[in-house]
Amino acid sequence: MSNSNYCSILTRQSGEPLAGTAPFARHFVFISWPKKYWQYEALEAKGGFPQGLQKWMKEQSIISGKISIRLASHAGLNHDKVDIFFYPENLCYSNILPGDIPTVLESHFLKGD
Fold first, then answer.
1. What letter does residue 9 receive in the DSSP assignment?
2. Could you read off the pLDDT of 62-83 as tens digits, one per residue?
3. Contact, 35 vs 73, CB < 8 A?
């Protein structure tokens, strides 16, 4: 279920700027989600995206160190399954149902650093 991916390669492939756009965080989490469902507040995305991740991120950041959750998109992306990338851990959980995103996040951070 887990495989290696590098943020720089994914960023280059998507045509996004490589440096200087992310805030400092101890943990970065990127969740694949079609851009057409994004909202002004990214973690309030539509199309079946789970609610409450903003609150969870703030609460878990107190326990695990600052966590930054970001959405990532590319052409042809569907919202029926997602990929979740964790950095600096360099982990990817693939083909996750949107409703299972909170469970995967909880499980990952319960394991500790």
1. H
2. 999 999 999 999 888 888 999 9
3. yes
The Cα 69–Cα 85 span in angstroms is 10
Q: Is the domain covering 7-110 a CATH 3.40.30 domain?
A: yes
The reply to whether the predicted model has a pTM over 0.85 is no
Beta-carbon contacts of 47 under 8 Å, excluding residues fewer than 6 positions away, are 33, 34, 36, 37, 79
Q: Are 50 and 101 in contact (CB under 8 A)?
A: yes
Q: Where are the domains of the chain?
A: 7-110
- What the block records as the tokens of 82 is 């997602």
Local structure of residue 51 (DSSP, 8 states): S
What Å distances lie between residue 80 and 49, 97, 98, CA to CA?
10, 6, 7
